[in-house]
Amino acid sequence: MRRLTWLVPTLYILFLLLPIYWLISMSFKTTNEILGSFTLWPHKFTLDNYYKIFTDSTWYSGYRNSVIYVVINTVISVTVALPAAYAFSRFRFLGDKHLFFWLLTNRMAPAAVFALPFFQLYSAIGLFDTHIAVALAHCLFNIPLAVWILEGFMSSVPKQLDETAYLDGYGFWRFFLRIFIPTIAAGIGVAAFFCFMFSWVELLLAKTLTSVAAKPIAATMTRTASSSGYELGLLAAAGTLTIIPGAIVIYFVRNYIAKGFALGRV
Amino acid sequence: MYAKTENQLAWLYVLPVVLLVAFNAIIPLMAVVNYSVQETFGNNIFFFEGVKWFEQVLHSERFHASLLRQLAFTGIILVIEVPLGVAIALAMPRKGPWVSVCLVLMALPLLIPWNVVGAMWNIFALPDIGMLGRTLNRLGVNYNYTQQPISAWATLIAMDVWHWTSLVVLLAYAGLSAIPEAYYQAAKIDGASAWAVFRYIQLPKMKRVLTIAVLLRFMDSFNIYTEPFVLTGGGPGNATTLLSIDLVKIALGQFDLGPAAAMSLIYFLIILLLSWIFYTVMTRGEEQR
To answer: Of A2, A122, A225, A244, which is most buried by a Cβ count within 10 Å?
Structure first.
């Protein structure tokens, strides 16, 4: 029985890869082949769909927009979450538990609830259709998550580390930047990974807060799908390209995910 | 754990987080509260209506139906994804080159934008030109998710299992890797069965991460919007109209701001209440550790 356990993850991965394979294979097919016949792999292999995306600015600017706001959001979320998580893990202060729970409740808020008020709020302050608007809006759910993850990692670092550093004459910020942050690097990796992930995959708010200048790729896809009819090949190619940034990020943090989770109590 | 020092200045460290989140949470929430107690006939003129919308939503059969569908969906995916995720994590290799390969491949669905997930399953399951739909029909299964509620539900659940089981796997696997080798050796010396090892060593060690996994899966599945919207659009009929889809239909489709806002608040309260119950039940007894 022991020898067969490898079958479980293998079958699961196979199940995960099937729809992805179908998407990728469709992206190399012509519209005629997709609609006209059922083929397991592209018989008339074509790069036209990708060519169109890389030459048409409405398409490729979508990728640029998405990457810009996701990166801004990840940087903001992790930066402000670091000192906050430190405070939650090391100190008792008035209302700390309530504050922590309140932060987490924002992780539970359905984006659909906030779509319309967000639109009004960001229009009122003149940030509508900017990258920073989406980056700030995604802070709603990413900051609580980052605080939650980092607090877990920080609490697993013994307090003696802080005390020793202070005895050695370190000030708070010097200790924090020079010693503490390198100690929890794995936690920062995991937190950044999750912030990137949730900002990259979210569409409802990103779509609500943008129209042209900062339109995310995912929104370009839905609008194209409805305006140009049934260009499944093009849609599949665009979808395939959205998988790539995620795949790159996973590749970089793969060791952090395995070891990182184990260190913290995430 | 260690004792925390009392330090009111810690508020300064928390301040940026509080400001940023409050800006995004409190102002829109107040707007929703505002709408929920008012009636408008356009032109930005509002009348105070008290709790009328709340009563209307709570008594509406449409809301009950969406809520029931939502509870069924969340219940089904939790029952499938949590045990499945734990089982896969248990079967995964502990060390060696395959660990990274498994983790990278498994994390892949988590990083695909949600509308792409919906679109991917949409074309994967099409009865005529999709791999899954075509294969099922060839095998003699009468399957068409755009017309049969049962097919639509099966597709929706398969999609969510495909999309999110990996999150449970990653968390459970992290919990498992934190167990020192010595525990297993001790169990071996005692001649413990595989079940006993799972029940008394692995499960307790995974409790913390599993709490997080269940909470995250609960919250996110209760808020799910984009994937079912792209996959089925809530249909056929209203068969897969979950709470978020219904809410957006009312708010942006019919522009009934009052009822939509009241529904939003009730919806949010339900999530808060259920999350709190989950959290309390799952962390019960943690104090005596």
So the answer is: A122
Chain A residue whose CA is closest to B2: A159
ipTM of the prediction: 0.83
Task: Reduce the DSSP state of residue B194 to 3 states and report it.
Answer: helix
Q: Do B251 and A144 touch (CB under 8 A)?
A: no
Q: What's the token pair of residue A253?
A: 């943090």
DSSP string, B82-135: HHHHHHHHHHS-SSSHHHHHHHHHHHGGGGS-HHHHHHHHHHHH-TTTSHHHHH
- For chain B, list the domains and their CATH numbers: 10-282 (1.10.3720.10)
Q: Is residue A52 part of a domain?
A: no
Token output for A244: 């790539």
CA A104 to chain centre: 18
Among B17, B111, B248, whose Cβ lies nearest the Cβ of A249? B111
Two structure tokens written together for A208: 């609500």
Range of the domain at A66: 57-263
**Of B11, B121, B177, Cβ closest to residue A258:** B177
Do A18 and A147 lie in a common domain?
no
Maximum alpha-carbon separation in chain B: 78
Nearest to B263 by CA among B87, B118, B54: B54
Tens of pLDDT, residue by residue, chain B (289 residues): 466 788 888 888 889 999 998 888 888 888 888 888 877 666 566 667 777 778 887 888 888 888 999 999 999 999 999 999 999 999 888 777 788 888 888 888 988 888 889 888 988 888 887 888 888 888 888 888 888 888 899 999 999 999 999 989 988 888 887 788 888 888 888 888 888 888 888 888 788 778 888 888 998 898 888 888 888 887 788 888 888 888 888 877 777 778 888 888 888 888 888 888 887 877 775 544 3
